[in-house]
Amino acid sequence: MPYTKLWSKIPLTTAFTLLITAGSSLLAATAEELVERQSGSSPFSGQFCDYTSFQTSVVGSRLLMFGGNLTINKGTNSKEKRELESGFQFFSLFLNETFQATDNATDYLRREPDPAAEKRIASMRDGGAFSYNGDIFFYGGQQLFNAGDDDIIYKCTPTSQNIVWNSAAISGNVRRTITKGASVDASSENKGFYFGGQDIIAKGADDSQADRVLNGTSSNNLIVLSFSPGKQEFTNITAPVSRAKPLVESNLLFVPAGKEGILVNLGGDDGTGDGAWEDLQVFDIGSSTWFNQRTRGNLTSGNSKNPGTGTCSVIASDGDNHFIYVYGGSNRAPGQSQLAILTIPAFQWFTVSNQNYPSKVNAQCQLAGERQMLILGGRSSNGRGDCGGNSFLEILDISSLEIVSSFPNNNPFTPPPLVRTAANSSNPLDGWTDPELQGLYETQYQTFAERNQESKSDKGTIIGGVVGGVAGVLLLSIVAVFFIMRSHRKKSARDVKEAVAEVNRNSVAQPFLGQPSPGFPSPAFPSGEYQHAYQPGYPPGHIYKDDYIVEAPPNPAPAELPSANPAARPMELPS
């Protein structure tokens, strides 16, 4: 029967009821889907198994996780097939929120939109992430699709509303084609560093083809990213093999020591199964020099002499002492030591055995606050036949050395009792392997901003000193001229006074004798010739008309005797 005829036989009230019910169901389904999308209640499309080979970065109070391999189980038991989650993995964890690190990751984890679907952003595996001025730059790593060429890397800008993606150009003798290296974000220096790793061949034009890793190859190059407003520069520093052998999947840490900080590279694999555990690779940023430093302590646990590859690490400082926490590793089985601590400058290793520590390989670690080490993702070393049995997130209190569930803990960091004895040492227990490193290490560290401020202050002091010196000389010159002029004025006035006094004295002692003008007789005497005293050698009777010597009549002696030789009357009194 045609639907129109069937519909015509349904009573009107019944039709309205059906429409309202259907509409309500549709609206309810739409609302439920919208709520699910907004709340992010399903960060995984199935049961979480493990998350490896991803990168983490912190911008403000937001911890972001990018790329990598996410494995899930969509079945109802562990025998179901584990599947690799397709697409670009992108998660957020907000560090300004309070939460409990439970088995249910939806309590604290949010999934961000996949940028690869619309904006052709490369999917990444391994590599390094560096933050600067609100942006996150990605360097290296294996790109799985939509990859750029050798001169392009990607960056994103997280905001409160969305995340903006862009590309950034690489400069200098640097290419992006490296993976499985060690990266560290030295934010206090406005720099990022990437060391070692394996070479890769960039993918072709086919979007389905991923970058190919060249197994058996390794690099001992240190890539330095220097950031400034609106600009990033890349530098390639090749390390001497004698001091920094090539390593894969090592740990690179920034230590606030030395003039501009130092880098410590440890762990990893050098192709023989060993890494940098007993002898560390140390790079002084200020002098761009590599050193070696021998350590003390036993890292053996079970049948393994060291943690192996796949470890993650953080660093905490207490004054001039620094503590590197290294977690997990491919050589550690359940029940073995999952945590190792290196103290600096004693350079001594300690291992911690705790049955409550979950085994982790290829996890990522971040220090939140001063004393909570976030251990994110990773896989269990039990094997890959199950879904791990570990939580997406574990929290290690690096002061109490206990796994905790509450976040955050705002208490300050205090070194655990296990390492306090070594923390009292101001030098390596076995001495400095490279004595030159001692002087560099013992230099008081200042951040880039502090050094820049001090440099401006020094320049200001120099300029101020020069300007002040010139101003001082000018001021002294003005004062000197003032006093000289004043002295001259005082001297002139004094000369006038003395001259007037002298004239007055002479006026009392003898009459004023005016200087005769030519052709006119002296006003004091009648015209004619006058007898004068003779000067020696002149004949008697010689008359001198121009020289007058007059003997003053006797007078009482004045209160102040005039000088022996009467002063000649000045031609013109000074003004």
TrEMBL record:
SUPFAM superfamilies: Galactose oxidase, central domain
Region of interest (Disordered), ranges: 512-532, 553-575
Alphabetically ordered keywords of this record: Membrane, Signal, Transmembrane, Transmembrane helix
Signal peptide: 1-31
Transmembrane segments: 462-484
Domain of life: Eukaryota
Name this polypeptide is given: Uncharacterized protein
Organism of provenance: Arthrobotrys musiformis
